[in-house]
Amino acid sequence: MEHGTAVSIQHKPFSWPWWKGAPGQIPIVVLGIIIFFVTLVYIVPTPQSMIDLVQQENVKGAKYKAGTNNYVDSYNKLMKSDFTPEEVAHKMVLCVAMLFSVALLWGTEAITLAATDILVGLILYIFMILPINEISKAYMKDAVFFILGVLVLAAAVGVTGLDRRIGNILLGKIKGLKGFCFIFFPVLAVISGFLSEHALVALLCPILVLVYMEGEKAGCSKKELQALACTLFLGICFAANVGGSGSPAVGGRAAIMVGYFSDYGMPMSFGRWMMYGLPVVPPLALACGLWIYISVARKTGPARTMDLGSVMRKGVEGIGPLRGKELLMAIFFAAQVVLWIGASAIIGLGGATMLIVFFILVTKLMTWEDVQQRVRFDVVGLYAGACAMGVALKYTGAGVWIAQNFVNLLPEAFHTGMGIVVASSLITTIVTNFMSDGAAVGALGPVVLPMAAIGDVHLWKVGLACSFGSSYAHAMIVGTVNNAIAYGLAKHPETGEQLLTPLDFVRVGLPFVFISMAILWLVAFFGYWQILPWPAVTG
Questions:
Q1: DSSP letters along 49-109, please?
Q2: Does the pLDDT of residue 172 top 80, yes or no?
């Protein structure tokens, strides 16, 4: 049975097996989340801090509608209404309740992912958190089209057979899972800082499905196959994630922070970013390999010593020269990379990707029936739901309220000096696991950057900590685009079974979040950052 679909086994209603359920239908978890949501929204009084926040003017990190300077006026202008501060604050409560409820549903899969994706929109509609047209726009962000396009692109690479040839190039020399973890991961992480990490993950996933199939043929048990799937798909996903510290070319989260630096009159060059960020990538990637090997790879049974290079070479035997549909797909993929680099600033990453998808369909490299069978539309919806929640958090001020309260909870040591730098990375990592990385940096950057002057610490240190922290969202599918792509493409080619579960991200990814943070702090913040030169001007 495909993971994430409703269970077919019928149990007596309200019996313990019925309450316990299975992925896609777990009544006891659903009941708990309903109680949590109702309690937070209707029973617990609206915090006074929320009522005060919506009335404050020019709050750090706030995003207001043009011509307004507080959340009450801004939200009323958005809704074309006349809400009181208490009513606006209650909308903020609704957003906080929605964020944590939906995150729990995504993490536990108590209902199907598709149902949870729709639930986000239903809450926004039913409770009138955003205007109808704004809800639609929130679901149709450029990032959503990008995710959809990348999934189609990866499927086309597999359909045309190009994945086998590329797999042989990338993995042809890797002997076993040890080499995969300790050689390939560092290479992938460094490359991810300069090329499109999302494209690399999308390209590798169909290739790794072939490796998974070989593990099946090798006689791995169900438990060993699950460990193999986690090793392959979570491994490349996490390695690509940590590569996000390497350079500002990594994507939206870095570009947003570079823009903030310019707004503060302290623009940062490409080389400067690399000097501060690239040295921490290899230790992070090696730690990723060590953690993946210890936690899952060594539990893969016969697959642990499987020669990945042999699998790749076997896959390309007799395929001949690059020609026909395979050659055309290679041209399209190269064109895609060029468009991402050269045209995304004009037509967006989503527009650049959907343009290639159009040509893939027009040239019949894939049919629409292929797309329907091979693309996980619920994963696309999952990212769309995360984008919609991000818009609601921005307009109501809920995102700023969460950030402020988190900072206030920290000890005084985190309010000055390097403590602010640590706090900036910590809060960004936590928030990014529930939102997209770009949205988290966009929302939190204006909150944490002003703290640099307060704590007498360099502005760049706080900003880089925020941006780097957004690269370590390993515990939730929505944390990074890489996570969503890996989850969407980790699918058995014959049975359609989902090879990863949301719980796998939590089980394997959450400990690695803490490992990543510890390495960032020890190796970068309190390591080589202490001996590197920083411009004289401080935040």
A1: HHHHHHHSSS-TT----TT--SHHHHHHHHHTS---HHHHHHHHHHHHHHHHHHHHHHHH-
A2: no
